[in-house]
Design goal:
The protein is built from 2 helices and 17 strands. It is mainly beta. The strands form 3 sheets. Strands 1-3-4-6-7-10-11-13-14-16-17 form an 11-stranded antiparallel barrel. The relative contact order is 0.21. The N terminus is likely disordered. The chain has one domain: Porin (Beta Barrel), CATH 2.40.160. Strand 16 and strand 17 form a beta hairpin. The longest helix is centred in the first third of the chain and has 18 residues.
Amino acid sequence: MKYSPLSFWTPLALGLTFALTCSRAQAQNWNDRPDGFAPIGISTDGERPTGAWTFSYQHLRTDGSGLLDGRGQVTDADVFADGYAASPHSMVRETHSLNALFGYNPSTSLLLTLPFLNNEVAMRTLSGPDYELRSTGMGDLQVAALFRLDHDEDEVLHAQLGVSLPTGSRDERGTTPSSGGISEKLPYSLQLSSGTLDLIPGITYVKRHESTSLGFQAKEIVRFTENSDDYQLGNVALISAWVSRVFKDDVSGSLRLGYCHEGRMQGQDADIDPNLSPLHDPRSQGGDRVSVWAGINYIETGGHSFGFELGGPLWQDLNGPQLEQDISYGLGWHYSF
């Protein structure tokens, strides 16, 4: 029987909500609280005082298996019946991000994010051997400014305006059983760059209470033009809402609901054969996902803090056939001074 994320995450969400509601922990100064930074899967959650720095590292991993077309399950046989030479069976996607946040002035902070990506997809063929596609390397560098719109004792509101620079590779290649040892260009989702200069606007709001905090973030990756390979990735919209509760002076728990919309691709790379697999087909890109995450934050004296989140999908509607997501986790470290 295929694993159903909903059967596990529904009782987990209810249990954590009960724990967050019933906890009697008391909070100290906001800057010293473990929920002083957002769940680790959230980036750009707050600005810094003038002259202050925060360096951080985030590791996000997503595993996936099984195929969806829309919201319906499809099989490898269905994929082969559609004329594809291979079918994706499972995947692992990892992102390692190095971040530097600097308080430029009382109302503006500057953020630099450098991602390193690792993508692996196991493929199945109708009659030949199974094989694996992999890409590893630096992704697109992001530079952003955070603008304080409101900062009271118990709430923070800031806007983000950033750009993604096409510093990653868009010529990742590999061999397949049918390529005769010749290196072929990997499918779109295994390339390390969009190949375009992308705009990243966003807004974040955090409300603080005595021993709880509530947060909301919305941001989008906006793409305006095709890259030099004659295609344009779809826009990506990300929305998250979370509640955090302080259990001890140095430990807090969180529950987060996330929504991701990835628009359809436009155009096509002439070097990527759309008949090889759905991964290579520009029509099988993008979709919508709703996921839930449970997390924990831990803070130490001296400016160090750590976070962990575990999540999974509640609902997926994909432009398929496309691999569905199973389970994800994130972990990270912050150092502020």
